[in-house]
Write a structure and sequence with these properties.
The protein starts with 5 loop residues before the first strand and ends with a helix. Helix 3 packs antiparallel against helix 9, helix 4 runs antiparallel to helix 6 and helix 14 runs antiparallel to helix 26. The chain has 28 helices and 26 strands. The strands form five sheets. Strands 14-26-25-24-15-22-23 form a seven-stranded mixed sheet, with helices on both faces. Strands 6-5-7-13-8-11 form a six-stranded antiparallel sheet, with no helix packed on it. Helices cover 52% and strands 18% of the residues. The chain is an alpha+beta fold and 736 residues long.
């Protein structure tokens, strides 16, 4: 067998709970030729490594279909319609769930009203039967279908208990409606439980709808990343002929022309011309980078005002952007499947409840005398009704919804339940620098020698005509002043600008520009420039044609809230790390200002994800906070991903939490909210189970030999409803 393996990600369809994810994973892993398989229930993705000469995706799909699920296999990973069709499938499924939930609630309401207030009208049972039937067998049919699927594979889930309790309650009620004399002859009043069966299904469907809504759609993040890739490209042929071709037809060695404002299509090296390129989506740094001959350029970055040609080196799946897309997919798919607490408990709870119900029936039948069979049947139904997982199904979603609402009110958008659960365990926070700790855009922080208005007007007039990104900071700083006409303006690439104003020659740029033009620099200005450089600030000089006049400092300033946030995190025992693509001097200065001990400079996007992986391997639960496309792979790798609200859409799509105000103090607040919500979920599960622990033995008739007490199924239904009310009420306490 060849040692060559392929690693691919496929969307899994028709999974209903974490147990389904385990089932699909086991099915695929057991196929010949599969090296490893992992199913993430949260993202509904299968990541599989396999030998292509032994097994094909079609073989895997067939095996998954035999297990009762489906795989979405696309021939072309880059086909823009593939994610579209997946999104359409998810949208259709969500809309179907919404329709079934609304339908079940609308039909259940009159059943409950009839059962509570109009039980004694002649046709009460028939009305409830007519209304409950579509709820059980149409709106709730998936519970029965899924339960049957699991039964064929000898497994049980929450669907099994929902199907059994509602199915038996319905059939028992139907029997009592059609043959009431069976019970009357035995001295027992026949009751119907149509409202129990329909309300259970409505509540569980509502819980699932809330859960799906909270989960959100992670596939749009990858779609937006893929959208960064240019669709067409202009290549230079012989005799300087320009030909526009689709990006898929570009090969290494082609010479590509990049016009002003265009996206760069593939990775390569500049051969002719120069321009500033916005690389913020890769590096996260706000200042566009000057590109001239022999400099590297990358796919997905955006050219500014100049134009240039470059030779293609890496195309298709080899580009840095394609690697980031792949890393996001891998990091999302490599996480362990979300084993929800309720599903774990249900794995034991469901068979135990069924066992108790059947055992109760058998004991009554064998030892209950002449009324043994009827009492046994009542006990069986009562056990299944009181053990109904209604409160269990609502315990998590209601607390999550209140927690998410509470977070939104505080400017913290939380995407799913998993992130709320993980946040309380975080013991390491990794912060991106630009736009997260700092403001994310260069501003003028100070100036020396720029005291008089004429000098300010000269600098503003020169920088107003410059294309350099730092010029914008100066223009914004001096925007209220009048502009003077500039003659013989010239932009000197990589150095600055020069021009003549009122007959006098002026220069604005770096120190190299002044030295080359033999301009005298005063000792005080030189000392100030060195001091500013030492603080990781960029220095712009203003000079006439004889001497330097002023220095202006430009920097990306630290946010006021960053220092307080770092202090709060560290005081609660959480380690804080800073990663940046910027140079060592800048990184050191910003880390010192923020009070951060651990930092790394000149970090590339894939290295950020690697850094987080190392922390995780050392036992850390890591939260990553970032705002750029360059952070997306690291965000996907982290246990908890947090995006800043003013950052890129892709960072926000990958992230599980978004801080709307870009205020880092919201992170310790989110961790506190997580602790409160998880505490509420645990309380809810306690209340959901305490009814079962007390109610199931009572329903089985444990007190009958001693006191003659036998729990009425109606009281069981009321206890079931009370457990749901207590769970919802407890969740609402979170609002306070």
């Amino acid at each position: 067998m060849s040692t060559q393996t392929i690693k691919k990600t496929f969307p899994v369809l028709q999974m209903g709970c974490a147990a389904c994810a385990t089932r699909v994973e086991t099915t695929v892993r057991n196929q010949a030729g599969v090296v490893n398989a992992s199913v993430n229930f949260a993202t509904a993705n299968l990541v599989v490594e396999y030998h292509p000469e032994v097994i094909t995706p079609e073989n895997m799909r067939e095996a998954v279909q035999n297990a009762g699920y489906d795989l979405l296999i696309e021939e072309d990973d880059e086909d823009e319609h593939s994610s579209g069709s997946l999104e359409e499938i998810h949208t259709r499924a969500f809309n179907d769930l919404k329709f079934r939930t609304m339908g079940a609630i609308l039909f259940s309401l009159p059943v409950v009203i009839t059962g509570m207030f109009f039980m004694h009208i002649p046709s009460a049972n028939a009305i409830m039967w007519a209304l409950a039937t579509p709820v059980v067998f149409y709106f709730g049919k998936d519970f029965f279908v899924n339960a049957w699927k699991q039964a064929k594979h000898r497994t049980t889930t929450m669907d099994t208990l929902v199907a059994l309790s509602t199915g038996i309650a319905y059939l028992f009620s139907l029997f009592n409606t059609l043959f009431p004399e069976f019970w009357l002859e035995r001295g027992i009043q026949p009751h119907v439980y149509f409202e129990a069966s329909s309300v259970i299904i409505s509540f569980i469907l509502l819980g699932r709808l809330l859960e799906e809504k909270a989960k959100g759609n992670t596939s749009s993040a990858l779609k937006k990343l893929i959208g960064l890739q240019a669709r067409t490209v202009t290549v230079v042929r012989e005799k300087n002929q320009y030909v526009e071709i689709p990006i898929k037809k570009v090969i290494a060695g082609d010479v590509v022309l990049v016009k002003p404002g265009e996206k760069i299509a593939v990775d390569g090296e500049v051969t002719e011309g120069n321009s500033y390129v916005d690389e913020s989506m890769l590096s996260g740094e706000p200042v566009p980078v000057l590109k001239q001959a022999n400099d590297k350029v990358f796919a997905g970055t955006i050219n500014q005002k100049g134009s240039f040609q470059f030779r293609a080196e890496k195309v298709g799946a080899g580009t840095m952007l394609a690697q980031i897309i792949r890393m996001v997919q891998d990091a999302e798919g490599s996480k362990a499947p979300v084993q929800k607490l309720v599903d774990k408990i249900a794995g034991i709870f469901v068979p135990v409840v069924i066992g108790i119900a059947v055992l109760s029936f058998l004991i009554w039948w064998l030892f209950g005398g002449s009324t043994g069979f009827s009492h046994g049947l009542l006990a069986l139904v009562t056990v299944l009704i009181i053990a109904c997982p209604c409160a269990l199904g609502l315990a998590t979603p209601t607390a999550i919804m209140v927690g998410i609402g509470k977070g939104a009110g505080k400017g913290i958008l939380i995407k799913d339940a998993e992130s709320l659960e993980i946040a309380r365990q975080v013991n390491a926070v990794v912060l991106d620098k630009t736009g997260t700790i700092t403001e994310g855009k260069p501003v003028v922080t100070g100036a020396l020698g720029l005291d008089n208005e004429p000098e300010k007007q000269v600098l503003l007039s020169l920088e107003k005509q410059s294309e350099h990104p730092l010029a914008e900071a100066i223009v914004w700083y001096l925007e209220d002043l009048p502009v003077r006409p500039v003659e013989a303006f010239e932009s000197i690439t990589g150095k600055g600008v020069k021009g003549i104003i009122d007959g006098q020659g002026y220069f604005a740029g770096n120190e190299k520009l002044l030295r080359e033009n033999k301009i005298a620099i005063g000792e005080s200005l030189l000392h100030e420039a060195k001091r500013l450089n030492g603080q990781a600030q960029t220095v712009i000089w203003l000079a006439d044609d004889r001497k330097a006049i002023a220095v202006v400092a430009i920097a990306d300033q630290i946010k006021e809230s960053s220092v307080a946030a770092v202090r709060q995190l560290q005081s609660s025992g959480i380690e804080v790390y800073m990663l940046t693509g910027d140079n060592e001097t800048t990184a050191q200065e910003i880390a010192a200002q923020a009070g951060i001990i651990h930092y790394q400079a000149e970090v590339l996007p894939h290295e950020k994800a690697g850094f987080i992986k190392n922390l995780q391997e050392n036992g850390k639960i890591v939260a990553m906070v970032g705002d750029g496309i360059n952070d997306s792979a690291a965000l996907a790798q982290a246990d908890l991903s947090i995006a800043m609200g003013k950052g890129s859409d892709i960072a926000m799509d990958v992230a599980k939490m978004t801080i709307i105000a870009s205020d880092l103090t919201k992170i310790p607040e989110a961790i506190r909210l997580s602790k409160q919500t998880v505490k509420t979920i645990r309380q809810n599960l306690f209340w959901a189970f305490i009814y079962n622990l007390i109610g199931i033995p009572l329903a089985a008739g444990i007190l009958y030999p001693f006191t003659g007490f036998l729990l009425n199924p109606m009281i069981a239904g009321a206890a079931m409803a009370l457990s749901s009310v207590s769970v919802v009420t407890n969740s609402l306490r979170l609002k306070r």
